[in-house]
Amino acid sequence: MGKQEDNAVLNTLMKFIGIMAVGAVVIYFLAGSMVDDTNQESAANASMDKAIEERIAPVAKVKVAGDKPAADAAPAKVSAKDTYAAACFACHGTGAAGAPKLGDKAAWADRIGQGNATMYKNAIDGKAGMPPKGGRADLSDDTIKAIVDYMVAESK
Questions:
Q1: Contact status, residue 84 vs residue 147, Cβ threshold 8 Å
Q2: Domain extents for the chain?
Q3: pLDDT tens, position by position, 98-118
Q4: Can you tell me the distance from the alpha carbon of 78 to that of 92, in angstroms, rounded to the nearest whole number?
Q5: Which pLDDT tens digit goes with each residue over 59-100?
Q6: CATH for 80-155, options being 3.40.50.300, 1.10.760.10, 3.40.50.410, 3.40.50.150
Q7: Among 65, 91, 97, CA closest to 147
Q8: For the whole model, what pTM was predicted?
Q9: DSSP 3-state assignment of 64?
């Protein structure tokens, strides 16, 4: 009887070890498939990170007196539309503080009727609730004029 019991225990133990081995193999393959999914997610996250970096990249750089530009570096040309979006949209896109909204033909009609020279002067020097250059003293007069031209074209 002792030998039969030993054989029964040994058989049960071998079955248990076999089941554990099969379970380990299954877990190994499942883990491998999860690693592949993680690599795909990493690629998607890297792509998303790159898109975010592009969207939040500065539109201009500060130049300090005495800085010498690289010989082959041409200054980046920023469109009036992009500068409007960065500097003017907060008021002219929402109508804040009574600013005429971009594209509102009725609100712009009288202003356009005064002529470009008057609109340039008001934009550069400020008028009513708008500070000079819309609060962006870093923008050149020519840039302000280009933004005015863009806004007028979009509001005719």
A1: yes
A2: 1-57, 80-155
A3: 889 989 899 889 988 999 999
A4: 19
A5: 777 777 776 665 555 566 788 888 888 888 888 888 888 889
A6: 1.10.760.10
A7: 91
A8: 0.53
A9: coil
